[in-house]
Amino acid sequence: MDRTANGISRRGLLRAAVGAGAAAGATGGAAAQEGTTHTVDMTDELVFAPDSITIAPGDTIVWENVGTIGHSITAYEDDIPDEAEYFASGGFDAEEPARGAYSAGDPDSGDVPGGESYQHTFEVEGTYDYFCVPHESVGMIAAVDVVPGGATPTPSGPAAPTVPDAAKTLLVTVTGAFVAVLALAYFFLKYGGDYEMMDEER
Fold first, then answer.
1. pLDDT at residue 174, as a whole number
2. Nearest to 71 by CA among 124, 138, 24
3. 86/92 Cα distance (integer angstroms)
4. Topology of 37-146 in CATH?
5. 3-class DSSP state for residue 85?
6. pTM for the structure as a whole
7. SS3 assignment for 13-45
8. Around Cβ 174, how many Cβ atoms within 10 Å?
9. What backbone torsions phi and psi does residue 85 show, to the nearest 5 degrees?
10. Which of 18, 60, 133, 164 could link 72 by a cystine bridge, Cβ 3.0 to 4.6 Å?
11. Tell me, what's the pLDDT at 48?
């Protein structure tokens, strides 16, 4: 059996190297599977911005209160996938307790005051509808769509220029005038302006 100077067999050294490589690969795989973090703002205009977002399974949403008015993030229990974990600021595991406990200024009741945030990681595909308890009646409602691959990326290149209607009209007019000039030029080239000969032939 071949041994190194320290008395370790080459086979044992190879096994250790392969094991270390496998462990590193597993660590790298776990890191690669970590999801993306997205941000949704809660504003003093009483909206979630954006009010609709598409993410991939394993992604996390962080709701940031960018205003001064307190808000909650509370899932509609009947409007999330059956297998999904219920989510609500304050750590509630059902909609009714979250609704009943809310008290402005009390983070334990689900209130997220200005400058604070709440986050949740979405593992199950489907649509999740949620709302803000104190501002539901004024339409502070939003949705998360969890689909494989997440949102379709937008092109990174420059946007195609748009042509104003006035420019289109001008182009049509100029094109028509150009065609008329060509027709006249063709007429004059063909007949050479010799109208007397044309009259004599008649």
1. 77
2. 138
3. 8
4. Immunoglobulin-like (2.60.40)
5. coil
6. 0.61
7. HHHHHHHHHHHHHHHHHHHHCCCCEEEEEECCC
8. 10
9. -75, 135
10. 133
11. 98
Mean pLDDT by 10 residues, the chain (202 residues): 46 44 40 77 97 97 97 97 96 97 95 97 97 97 96 56 69 78 72 55 51
- Asked whether 131 and 76 are in contact (CB, 8 A), the reply is yes
Residue 89 CB neighbour total at 10 angstroms: 28
Spatial contact of 86 and 80, defined as CB atoms under 8 Å apart: yes
> Which residues, 6+ apart, have CB-to-CB distance to 68 below 8 Å?
44, 114
Show the tokens assigned to 143. 């949705």
Neighbouring-strand partners of residue 141: 131
Domain boundaries, the chain: 1-34, 37-146, 165-201
For 142, the 3-state DSSP assignment is strand
